[in-house]
Records
---
Amino acid sequence: MTELLARTVSVAKQGNILVATVDNPPVNALSHSVRAGLIEAVKALEGDAAARAMIIVCEGRTFIAGADIHEFKKPMVAPLLGEVIDTLDAATKPIIAAIHGTALGGGLEVALACSYRIALDGAKVGLPEVKLGILPGSGGTVRLPRLAGVEQALAMISEGGQIPARDAREKGIVDEVVSGDLRSAAVAFAAKVVADGGKVRRTTDLPVPSFDPAALEASRAALAKKYKGFKAPLVAVDLIKMVTETPVAEAIALEYKTCKELLVSPQSKALRHIFAAEREALKIDGVDAEVKPRDIKKVAIVGPGTMGRGIASCFVNIGIPVTLIGLTDEGLASAVKAIGKIYEGSVKRGSLTAEEMERRMALLTTTTAYDGISDVDLVIEAVTEQLDVKKEVFAKLDAVLRDDAIIATNTSFLDIEELAATSKNATRIAGMHFFNPANVMKLLENVRAAKTAPDVLATTTALGKRLGKVPVMVGRSEGFVANRMLSKRTREAQFLLEDGATPQQVDRVLTAFGFPIGPFALADLAGMDIMAAARAARVARMSPREQQCNIVDRLVAAGRLGQKSSAGYYVYDDNRKASHDPAVDELLDAHRRERGFTARAISDEEILERCLFAMVNEAARILDEGAAARPGDIDVIWTNGFGFPTYLGGPMFMPTRSACRRSRRRSTNMRASLAISISSRPR
Ligand code: 3H9
């Protein structure tokens, strides 16, 4: 018999075991109907004298992935999650959570309120609320330490990581790990519990295991350093400390109060915006969600330089064979050696096994001839940034590839339309702009050209996700989105030097704001010769002021190429520690004198506003041109590409919020334009 309790929870009976099945796609979040349904399921268990235990199992790809994030914006409707948890906790018959996929946040809290937890091998559990700027609010901080210990619980709650079922078993969070059919295994487990007397086990009856208070304080210091600027990880320490000192009922109430306070904090709003924006970015403007990506089983990468190597390792990391094409055997051999070195480092650090390294390296082949790649599904060209060279590569690829194979360029600033026009089949041309180091950086700017086929766009997006990247679709635009906005910030930072600021002051203001590195330390890292070359390529299109703002050329002329020559905007010691160099003050003074600028005192506020507005203004132009589909896409690009603090929500979210205070009725584009009018002096 199957009884529908709520639209999303159904109950069936198997012998004397009730099976409550949650079915709330896509991730079985604890929406109102699930909460109501779970309470009804417990009532059904209590009301059925013949039923001796119940399992909670989920349909689809995962166990309950947490509270329904979409409900956070509205007033919550009873029953709240706390009531569900209390109902499970108060049940007089054992309830068993059967976990597959991920049991996260409120989902794990539901499981922790059950008597037993069994998990399918490969499932994961975690309390990731901190990533949304909140903390568990339905007993997670109260129950997890009682099962896993205080230090382990703090690590999971303050960092939000997921742990595999086997680890969870070892740590006491899960009772049994099974393989095969989870539902049958859970019913068998429940039957055994019944046969053993049908005992109810309440996590809240357990004592808090002993712990080292000094370790908690050490965690606080470590978290403050690792998550600089983030509030919730530090609140997690206070919360766990409170739980160790407070009776259960009071601790649960205090935990809920803390969660509610965090939920309305600006950081949580910003982090939830980024969570939603990253998922929204996967929806390609103008491409139907039903469009199927092409199957990518084999890849070739042209160009075994820094980018080509990094991109190659991204693919072999996920088991896709790669053919690396280069001009010489020597160049290819050194690329393979460099990739091997990256993996050797991981093996030494213990993050990769020697066998896994071997497996990955075996997926890598090299060739100097194009005819060996006729069977690949995708080619990414990562050759030198010269249009003619790339056109030549495209012609060679056109000659050997299957018609349905995709050609993606990794160009950072060349015109994708010009490249597409050289191909005999422009529909298969797209951009996949990886960031250096490609094997580390999360951001992937996928580029669409006018004629790119919808399923090619769907493929680069799906592939980005498969590679563990955060893909964002962008359109034709010089420098696309990330670098185009960065160049405007860099330009403004240079103008600030002309006006009287120092590199140290600008870098200090922007790192205090939350960027991991300031623009001048970043320029030293990139190399002044590279910056000068990029400037030379664009100089004809620059405004007169920018054309004459040639500080980079002066640094190059003085032999100050950045970190690589131990001197740029800063001077560097053998450990690459940067210090102020009076020679740079003199160089800047000379520049100002020649250009007719008188140095004035510049406030930190002016520095911050000018640098941020320069970015936001460019973003507004990018949106107006359609080179980015949504403001949220730009936030995703900047938080993942250049370390814009996620707790501020990105450059579009942040100024939008302050502009909102001035006018609630303006559209997002208009709000960005507001920033333009504020900083509208001639550039
Ligand atoms: C919480 O539980 C608080 C409680 O302690 C206390 C409360 C008082 N709700 O990521 P994907 C959607 S806080 C609603 O691409 P994947 C997502 O928007 C919560 N929707 O899939 C997307 O929809 P769309 C703690 C959600 O396979 C679709 O599902 N839990 C939720 O790569 C697919 O998502 C978390 O923070 C949600 N909770 O990864 C878990 N989660 O396509 C957050 C996802 O329409 N979720 N969606 O945009 C995740 O980490 C991943 O989604 C998961 C699946 C690992 C589950």
---
Amino acid sequence: MNDGFTRREMIGASALALSLSSTALHAAPAPAAAPQPRRRERLERWRFHLGHAAEIDKDFGFGRDQRTFAKAGVSADAASPKFDESGWAEVLVPHDWAVALPFAQGPARKDSDRGAAHGFKAIGRDFPENSIGWYRTPIRVTPADRGRRIWLEFDGVFRDCLVFVNGYVVGRNESGYAPFRVDLDDFLDYDGGPNVITVRADATLGEGWFYEGAGIYRHVDLVSASPVHIPQWGTVVRSDVDASGATVHIATDVLNSADAPVDAQLRLTLINPGGQTVTVNEPIAINLGAGEQRTVDYDAHFAAPQLWSIEAPSLYTVRAELLAMDKRLIDTVETRFGIRSIRFDSQHGFFLNGKPVKLLGTANHQDHAGVGAGIPDALHRWRVTQLQGMGSNAWRSAHNPPATALLDACDEMGMLMIVEQRYNSSDPEAVSQLERTIRRDRNHPSVILWSLGNEEPHQATERGARINAELQQHVRRLDPTRSTTFAMDQGWDKGVGRVVDVLGFNYRTNQIEAYHSRHPDQPVMGTETASTVATRGEYANDPARHIVRAYDTEHPWWATTAEEWWTIVADRPYIAGGFVWTGFDYRGEPTPFDTLPSISSQFGILDTCGFPKDNYFYYRAWWRPDEPRVHLLPHWNWPGREGNPIEVWAHGNAEEVELRLNGRSLGRKTMPRNRHLEWRVPYAPGRIEAIGYNGSRVVARDVRQTSGPAHAVRLTLDRRVARTGEVVIANAAVLDARGRPVPTADNLLRFSASGGIVIGVGNGNPNSLEPDVASERHAFNGLAQAIIRVARGPVQISVASDGLSASRMRIVAV
Ligand code: GAL
């Protein structure tokens, strides 16, 4: 795809574009109102219909005959502005159509996993009727737009897609994860006629061995700018922090896509994290020939910068404004950045602003209950919050570049991020994906590393080394401020391991020490660690039901428990940290059970809804050591097991933990650092309690109580005030008559929202084949979740269940 500016921009295509030194920016017909210097509009509302990958009649005329591309503008019926899409579904983007498909098993074939990898959704070659998605949306174009540059910015579409405007094919993109841009202005009707964008996305083929979703699952923006403008990703900000403060280097690309030279000026305004203007430069004069693009450099010095950090993620903004010589504003772009220093050290790990920071990370796919890959912005934030609650400070976007919305959340919330490439090759398409990703992401202070790839078959080979050396050259060119890494599961001494800056170990944490002694000058970390499998709220393995106990004991052969890897990494400063595989359970790659009804992995520290499993509290104890905690497992509902021993664990960081059953002390034990405590307790219903002591002082407690039958359902919301259009996360817990959680409850819960829409539900059960796009869901071990989009206020959210008292809460929509 394009690499930031296109041939059309370079040569300047519009005869109507005028020199900036003249008085009018736009030619006839005279604009009704002066156009804004730049307009950016998020295209959220689309119409959607499934097409067909094999039957042309069901694919809206696409490929009807061999002349599909014979004439411009007539490739498919559904791309025509006159096409009637009133029968299509109304959807909001981010949208993932795969999440609404039924579960199905593909035909048995040699070497086929029958769809396990993608979570047994009926998509792919075996389901051509579900694998093509068509989207249409009208866009607003006025006479004032004539002569301007108008383009679409897609943050990610899964997958192979064609973009049409008014019937014309205007762009194509084959990566499901890299951002891309499509120019529209030649093809628009500026005189009041319809202007319609159509996207045909083909999700027949996958790029991952995990659930990937389908469709326009990230944001799309429509941008309109003057022919003289700052191109997409045209501002790059780098900062050098030293004892005297910080020097901020701002490089701004300015493009004259008109066919005459222009004189203009670039004014840069720096705005501090509090919103105050701190510097405005003397406008810099620029003269650009027709079709010329130039980079304008500007340095600003801050004597006392507010550094971006995990604890205080301070964000500055640079406003770049292009002015005509008479000072009229031609274009304006705001770019957020952080001032901070990062480095990896082979002896002392990772440093942020000169201080060592252990990377307490998780690796995650982009998938959540109810919505699949189409994660709304507020849900991205909520997921970051859940991980931060455990003390995590770093996220590896596995195995693909993340959504911009997630990076924005990480910038704002102080979560470090590794951005990973999906396709580890050096062919032009793969390089283009890398380039687009880096150009999009390099101003985000949260991004600390570029991961070139993960466990590629060529990882330990000379060819792999060549490919990644080539990619690394591109990284150095596009972003000399960050290092590279690669997640390797073998052959670390060879191939790619000899190319990248920071060596990533997938599993085999116990081999890092020997590697480090062989390569003492190379920083090293765990790019995938642990991989404990657990079913939330379950405490006995039950292979027949695809259930794994949630003690920290179960893992596949290549992996370890949480305790095994963290005790290695915690005490070795040279290991920069580790990224647990995974933070959240994800659809697809169902492990340890890879047949139906298992549709998701059980690797997560949290389940697919973001409900914590018990290991969450192991990490929380040792990743937030200054906050005393104890956590007790299992639950205490074991009817029929009276008198039989139950395996009781405490996670926690108090110096000692005492266990009490129904008020009687079962003794006090010293908590070994970075480990846990265990007892065998003959079951008696009632109350089991862990009491944490530092010295003689009680610093933490946790209690499990035998509950009575389900009596009520309780709703909790992630927040009570939300903007119209945002989502809120509604969690439901089943309680007994005395308000105690019922840890085994599986009641059918019905969510509703007046003034809002329930867009999806989940319960974290890796073996549930209930639909996600629904408003009801059985509780799984006492819990369920709904994602609710706020339409307009007042919003009332309710959850009800037959025989249980219901719960409702209001939200103020602003
Ligand atoms: C790794 C791989 C991950 C996931 C994981 C399962 O090898 O990088 O994507 O498949 O194993 O344990």
---
Amino acid sequence: MSVQARDLAVEFAYRFGRAPTVSRAPGRVNLIGEHTDYNDGYVMPAALDFATLTAASQRPDRRLRVYSMIMDETREFDLDSPPAASSGDWSDYVIGVALMLETSGYTLSGADLIVWSDVPIGAGLSSSAALEVSVAHALLTQSDLPFDPVTIARICQRAENDFVGMRCGVMDQYIACCGAAGHALLIDCRSLASRHVAIAPNLRLLIANSGVRHQHAGGEYNLRREACEEGVRLLSRYFGSIRALRDVTPRQLEAKRRKLPDLIYRRCRHIVTENARVLEAARALEAGDFVACGRAMNASHVSMQKDFEITCPEVDMLAGLAQTVEGVYGSRMTGGGFGGCTVSLVEAFAVDKVSQILVDGYRIATGLDTDIFVCAPSDGAGLVLV
Ligand code: GAF
């Protein structure tokens, strides 16, 4: 189903009898820098043209009434007596964001909301952050409060950490708030500064969805985070001043290799080398050295496969197939891992060929179908004119 902002406004007027504002926040694809965000490191995502739309209008009370067009379900909350804990429902993201905005000092008006999204769910393209940021934008708009992108990204991350219970970093919310059309964003997840990196007009970001989602992905994600924290704890015996793996160089890590359990060493090696690869990929993209950028992407995939162990045979297959095609500079898994999508940096002329090879090769090797999306980097959150 494809719904435009105007269709959403019509649905809103039909259900609630008023004209809404429509807020939009995009999903994301990460070019490089996986699991580095919660290690205070670097990432380089781009905002997708897939997005979540939230139609909203103010209520005279402090109630939130939200209808999901995707789930065909309505939920209601009272901002003055909100639920104490998450319930595992899609609406956790909505009420979680409202609560974190309130605890951060934003006093919200009640609102009627309708949410709709075309960000593929469970594909590692950050449908949750798109929902959080879109709802935050809508609630602030209805309350006549400012939307400061970086501040709101942090608040939405806290909603996911402290209310939903997923210990994610800030990347997904940040790019949903701050993305820029035609660009990736190099984000320093410690200082929260960022720099736009243009995607040259001859390049395409080609996303291939494996359709696979590991059942225990959330638990595995948190385990990777704990392994990184253990690495910091052990390494700080030798390098007292480190606060996060961001502070450890590849050379320092090698020097202490024998002092670490092998598993912890390999988890740390992924992070410290990945940080270096993000910076190299950004430099290379800016210099027009697409071969070097692709090399960093391919190395990132190997590191995620062997050291961080977050890939799976299906995404290994998709990345490997793409890497063999002329006109593909690099290909890697994107997102939290254990399934989901690959992203390939591709010359425009090669898009049809690589798509066909991925569709055919993936079906022959796995019996599964892959969906291919060619993504145009879009803007971060904002109002849509209807
Ligand atoms: C998920 C998380 F939400 C992000 O914060 C990030 O850690 C990513 O996985 C891996 O890079 O999308």
